[in-house]
């Protein structure tokens, strides 16, 4: 912990004669590049604790500019939640250790156990579906930073056949705001997006409701959570509705977080399912999306093998990165579709499979199990970066509502305003 020692020495030397507090505040420069560099080399938990040393340091660490600078240097790790459990885990790729995250947050325990549905810059988004204890049949949501232990909670309406839910949390770079994407579905004519709302995280009311145009956007899967790649969110299309033909060209749903527009992409063509096929049964079980090296990656599972594809940003075409050959008896029995690829590291792939986590060496085909994961738990997985991002919470658990962008055409019923 050399950076922590150097930082403490620097802070001590900045104190005036006699150690007076006034001298400390006068001499300490929170904008000093050396101070910022030292802070950014510390673990996020240490940075958050050290803010208590002085008001100047606290103001620096809690500022949005420092939070963004810290995020630029912080490594991406895996964050896992056990199904229907308040137990969370960090999975560190370097030392293969799992660390239990403090899940004893009072606000997270007030209602039904929430399910992890998104991650952005250290903020985790959880959803608790409506139940008999939930007033007005609302979905309950929580944004939680495990480092700062801040929780922002709010609710969204579920309105019969026009029900909707929040599908993602993202950072809007031009306004430097954290926002939420709310999708409302039209269930009468296939599972398609009817319209969508933009919500500022921590704001007391919804932003706007955008009407969907002529393009038909399939409903994204609520699980697994959205994959964040630069300024885009991605999901696989929901394949539960068998009454409408969903071509492979629209099997991936994307959302541009800068333009705040929805679009679709085809899945990789691996000569098993052609893009012109009217139905795509592989969407449901055999394909998973993830971010890897700043690119959208598609993990396509077969019976005893897998293909890893990456999306070319300029052409929006898929390129095959590698082909993995698995031992059928060792890996697959009946839960083969549930294997999740996490990352590549030192010629090994990190995989999560239902009740265990392991590494698979691409050259030797040997497996190393990561100890500590008990059998019988389904793990929800997202890419995560530890941060000191904090939100201004003005919502206090109240329902949100939307202002329509086109009031003359919107059918949104403003019946969920605060009573």
From TrEMBL:
InterPro entries from the UniProt entry: F-box-assoc_dom_typ3, F-box-assoc_interact_dom, SCF_F-box_component
Coiled coil: none
Domain F-box associated beta-propeller type residues, every copy: 82-368
Alphabetized NCBIfam families for the sequence: F_box_assoc_1
Protein's recorded name: F-box associated beta-propeller type 3 domain-containing protein
UniProt source species: Corchorus capsularis (Jute)
Lineage of the organism: Eukaryota, Viridiplantae, Streptophyta, Embryophyta, Tracheophyta
